[in-house]
User: Fold this.
Amino acid sequence: MKRRMPVRYLFKLLTVTMIFLLAAANLAAAAPSQAEEHSYLVGLKPGVSAKVLDAPGVKVSKHWDSLEAVHIKATPSAIQELKKNANIDYIEEDRLVHASGTGQTFSDGALTWGLQAIHADQAWSQNATGTNFKVCILDTGIDYAHLEFTRNGVSIIKASQNFVEDGHPDARDGDGHGTHVAGTIAGQTNGSGSRIGVAPNVDLYIARVLDDEGTGTTSSVINGLNWCQANKANVANLSLGSDTPSKTEQRAFDLTYKQGMLSIAASGNDGASIGYPANYKSVVAVGAVDSGLKLASFSNFGKDQELAAPGVSVLSSVPLGTGTRSTLTELENGVQSTYPSSTVEFSGLGAFSGPLVNCGLADSATSCSSKPKSGAWIAVIDRGSISFGEKAQSVMSQGASAAIIVNNDTISPDDPGSFTLGSEGNWIPAVSVSYNSGTLMQKNGLGMGSVNITSWDYSYYQGTSMATPHVTAVAALAWSANPLLTNDQIRTVLQNSALDLGDAGRDGLYGYGLVQADAAVRLAKATNPVKQHVH
Assistant:
């Protein structure tokens, strides 16, 4: 079973791509040799033909007439010659972009807190569900077979295309990020035990611009964006990005905005300045908040932050069978307690019950000194000192059947954490719990415990990648309530209906505030349409 490494996305939480999915470099690690082809974007002077690029060592991959730009493959020596051409405006790397979210699995909850925070159900009660609106998702693709994307027996995926040169015949999701984003926007069922889709009646258009590792290129994003526009999408969701700008990419987003499409993008996940494309003026930049409506520790921010949305512990769909669900209980003095838990990445599956044994930091061969002489038992481990994989190996060598790692984060004491064992292997079931849960568990001494980890078609992710689809879906809800509004007007509606957070008025952390579906729908209905852009 493939699982995502949580730490790699810390926007470089990695990432985006926007996710910025969160810590990878934007350019190739090593400079190409003089004979090696590399990918570049070339801006032409107004009225200049792409024929000026005809030269040894240059291959034209795509000519974007409307952008006066060209995607080429060329050797470094050829690029040096092109830089001397007065007809060329600029030459830039076809930089990498990354997904801006990370996998994180928790025990099943009652309702998706994100939908509650943005008042999605109150928007639905106003007969605003996104009917007849097209949402285009530029991401890692989608799991076509997931029940969340079937409405009344018919797929809500109206078109899809792969823009990554990796041999995929279609936009099938080999990563999980895109399927998670799509579920937040338009999930149909209660398969997870919670309602996950904000705008259940929209139609989805899927542009696969990121590969199975959550990485893509600027050219793939531009090609996907143009495809969305050609399919007359109303809103484009980009839970991806880079920490460097691209002139060619900015041209593409500016043009599609002028043509009437609204693009919404993740700000990024490295707790720094807003990434790109979110930081272009023609794109709505979205930051992430936690369930306490505080800016997530990983969320990027800055003066161009426009809106905030739920981006921590967001439950949504993932490719079938690739998620996990964990449950953790303790029986102490006849009272059974259940604690929220997160599956540690690469953990084994299974269910075990037995006495809970304090193993401290699990940094020695005798750390679990109070373990029983026989039978199953569960190691309770403190975070710190050595890696989680080393801790798991230590307690496994001492005979543990399962492991519980207690987070030491007192700043976010209810966060169970997002940890990894490092790599796939023959691991015992391992979960993590928050600092507060660990304190309660050990308050009166450890009792009998039970850990159960099973495969699931859903998962909890975190990142600005997860916040972005909330805003995208609310835009669709509001627009469907008054279809004659322009993208400019819908953008203003989202701003003026947001719940102000932080400093009064717009600020650099939350922008205009937390997106509100019900208020946005009401304001959209009360707004008089102006002349539409050409779409």
Residues 1-33, 102-110 have pLDDT under 50 and may be disordered. The longest helix spans residues 464-481. The longest strand covers residues 323-332.
